[in-house]
Amino acid sequence: MPDELLRGVEVRPIVADERDLFDASLDEHHWLGYRLAGRTMRYVATDEDGRWLALLGFGGAALSCRPRDEYIGWSREQQYRRLPHIANNQRFCVLPEGRHPNLASFVLTRALRRLSEDYRVAWGQPVVAVETFVDPATHRGTCYIAGGFELLGRTAGYRRSGGRWFHHGNTKLVAMRTLRRDARRLLSADFDHPALAETNIPMIDLERLCFVGLLEHLAQIPDHRKRRGVRHPLASLLGMSVAATLAGARNITAIGEFAADCPQPVLEALGAKYHPRLHKFIAPHTDTFRRALAGVDAARLDEVVGAWLFEQVRQGRVDEQRLVLALDGKSMRGAVDEQGRAVHLFAAMVHGEAAVIA
Asked: Which positions ≥6 away from 69 have C-beta within 8 Å?
C-alpha cells in the first residue's frame, strides 16, 4: 500500500453498536473465530472512506508461558500480581479490502501506540507489554517481527480447559513486545511502580528507596505497647505504614491491604516477622496497625520520616531535577492550645512528589 494511502488509515476502538459487525467479520475471516478471553479491547482499522481494513482483538495474557516468564524474570507471586499488565493479541485479521503490502505491520504499530492508555481508561490498569502466539502451520508472523515483537521461544504444546491441562502437541512461537523500555524491570520489581497504579494518587517509586536507614531510625521511637503478646516490631509496623503511604494509602485499611499484598522480599526488607513453621515472612493484620499507630509519638515519627525522605531526595532516589520545596500551612478550625491560640499546621513538601519531608 503506498505511503499516502497508509496515512489515511485510522486505528480506533470499536463503539458499542459495532460489536455485532466486528464479531461477524472476525468469525467469517479468522480461523479461530470471534471469541476473546479476559479483559478485552477490540480495534478496527479504517480507510478515509470508512471501509474496514483490519480487525484486532486483545485480551488477557496466558496464565503460564515459560519463554515469557523466563524473559521477564519474575517470580510466581509477581506473575499472578502483575499479569493484568500484559495483554495478549488474541486476534489479528486483515480483511479482503485491506490486503495491501505493509498494512498489517502499520495497523499493528498504530494500535500498540494507544493500547496502554486505552486499557487504563477501560479497565483501570495500563499494560506495559503485549504477547502473542504464532502458529507456524497458518502463518509466519512476519507482521509481528516488522512491528517490533521479539521471538522468545516455543510453547510446550498444552492447553488449559476446565482447570486442567491437556497436551495437544501443537507448539506455537511466543512473541512479545514491550511498550516501555523499562517494562521488564517494572514487572519483576519487588515494589509496584507508580506506572502500574490503578489510581491517579501521586506515588514514589519505592524500588529506588533505601528502607534500611529508615528502619534504623524508626527503631529509636519508643514502643508504647506492653511486651506481652507483641508479635511484630514497632519499627517494622511503622516502616510498612510509611511505604504504604508513599504508595498511595490514605487510611489504616489501605495500609493493611498494602502489607497483605507485599511479596516476601518486600516484607523482609521492611523487617516483617519470620514464621519458622510456615517458613515465610508474615504481614501484620490491619487491627495491629490500628493499635500500634494510635499510641505513637506523631511528632517524633514525623521528624524521623521527614529527615529520611529528605535524605532520599538529596541522594537522587526521588525523581526531581531540582530540589524545590512547597511550603504551606493552615489553621485548624476549632482547635486551640493552652493559651487559646489556634493550632497551625505547617508542612514542607517536595514539589511534584508526594513526599512531605517536615
From this structure: 79
Task: Evaluate whether 99 touches 2 at the Cβ level (below 8 Å).
Answer: no
- Report the candidate in 264, 258, 233, 243 with the shortest Cα–Cα distance to residue 308: 243
Separation CA 236–CA 50 (nearest Å): 60
Burial class of residue 257 (count of CB atoms within 10 Å of its CB; 0-12, 13-18, 19+): middle
Bridge-based pairing of strands 173-178 and 129-134 is: antiparallel
Cα(50)–Cα(12) distance, rounded to whole angstroms? 12
Q: Classify the phi-psi angles of 293: left when phi > 0, otherwise alpha if psi is within -120 to 50, otherwise beta.
A: alpha
How many other CB atoms are there within 10 angstroms of residue 138's CB atom?
A: 10
Beta carbons of 339 and 314 less than 8 angstroms apart: no
pLDDT digits (tens, 9 = 90+) for 172-208: 999 999 999 999 999 999 888 888 877 666 677 888 8
3-state helix, strand, coil in the chain (%, to 5): 40, 25, 40
Backbone dihedral region for residue 157 (phi beyond 0: left; psi -120 to 50: alpha; all else: beta): left
205: nearest Cα among 119, 312, 322, 305: 312
Instruction: For residue 273, give the nearest of 254, 288, 287 by alpha carbon.
Output: 288
Residue 270 banded pLDDT, cuts 50, 70, 90: very high
Summarised one tens digit per residue, pLDDT across range 294-314 is: 889 888 888 888 888 888 888
